[in-house]
Hints:
A 4-stranded parallel β-sheet has the order 4-3-5-6, with helices on both faces. The chain has a two-stranded antiparallel sheet with strand order 1-2. It is elongated. The N and C termini lie far apart (about 55 Å). Helices cover about 50% and strands about 5% of the residues. The chain is of the alpha/beta class. The chain has 16 helices and 6 strands. Helix 1 runs antiparallel to helix 2 (about 30-45), helix 4 (about 60-80) packs parallel to helix 6 and helix 5 packs across helix 8.
Amino acid sequence: MFKSSIKYKLLTFDELVINLDRLSRFKLPEDSFNRVFTSVLQKCLIQPTYSKAEIENLDAKYISDLVKEIWNKSVKNCCNTETNNINCNKALKLIIEHAFKNIDKRTKTLINTKLNISPILNMLSYKESVFNLQFLMKVNEIFNQDSEFNIESLIELRNKFNLKYPISKILIVEGITEEILLPVFADKLNSNFDKNGIYILGAGGKSKSPALYLKLKNRVNIPIILLFDADAFEICNNLKETLIRKDKYILIPYGEFEDILSLNLIKRSLNNEYEPATPIIKDDLHIYNKMCENIENFYRTRHLGEFKKAKLSKILAQNVKYKTDITKEIKNLIHNII
């Protein structure tokens, strides 16, 4: 009755990959699963059709069955097989339950949908895939149908292959500089963030970090660390009242993150990138109290266009070669994070 009463079109292979990526990213499960399942139904259903609002009011088991029918038929069509390594589904569920708590009944039903995952993974290139899919690909490769494993087994897998998943710690940073450079510095210090399951979230400014923390603190099972510039002392004082015991904040010892970077690294990176412009010398980095103002002055006086932190961070990341490129202050930050 159920199957004969619906008409639908199939998902393409690319659409399956995009949706699997969205389901396995580190994101609140009610957001990711509702988004993907709603998208599948709206895109594929021919009869009946539902608006987004109508889907929100449908029974979760009915949604689960519909999506399972469309997804698995699409996988068979694209991958020429129905054989599924259910350990991929088990691993996905385990990492969600490891990271998140207070998952509502509706979302749990969607998470438990038996979607065929492994045939998709078998057709992907490991090197060209994102971290969350690489994690599932390793599970698919190493754990066969008879394998017994738990979250500790998956953490061991992460540690062995630097997989990032399962996520074991969240690091909330103010901006793009920390987001780009901290993993590079950590890797140079043999403290790889992916191996340690550290997931960085950029808040987009110190004033937005507390709101992001408050959104997550009662929803995640894992510790949260907030990293602030030195001038966020008052924000941190206010946060003390809301911090859960496993969570903490770290203040940069002085100034902004850019102020504790190696002068040699900055000088070498800018000169390599902007040759044959007049080279920057160390004295150029002491004109103003803030390093960003000194770098902005370098861009202005050499007519190099607008100074953007994201671009600078990528330039610096490409030029990190030696442990001496990492200052004592940054080493201490990474030690406290790990």
